[in-house]
Amino acid sequence: MLVRVNCPSLTHVVKYDNYDVVWASRRRKTRPVSWIKASLRKSKGFRKEPSRSVAALTIAAEGGTAAIAYPVHGMGPGVFEIALPFRGDAFRLVYAVQLADEIWVVHAFQKKSTQGSKTPKREVDWVKDRLKRLKEMLQ
User: Fold this and answer.
1) Where would a tag sit more exposed on the chain, N or C end, judged by fewer CB atoms within 10 A?
2) In total, how many domains does the chain have?
3) pTM (whole model) above 0.85
4) Which residues are registered as beta bridge partners of 96?
């Protein structure tokens, strides 16, 4: 089920209510995955390897951590980055697992850093700002 929520400080958030996942003939309830609208729109432009990000988010919704997800340093516990390398390009999805009872995708971007594997400061600032506003909205 898709629900759009108006939030003045974050424009819109998009909440997806997960359904029971059938796996090995047993049903499991996963946590809902919610997106900040700008992140959802940006991630749709990734057109390469989208199934890997969906699989990683599904693993997170079930309580695990995918092999392509890494903790983001300096953001506190529970904030992870999904790294999607593809033919020399680097795509990233940043999500938080410790906000309410949901997985929140707060930022998506194509990494174009000239500093090796370091995430550009402007992207880090976006994540910090969105996390702060999202925490305020959820209280």
Assistant:
1) C
2) 1
3) no
4) 79, 104
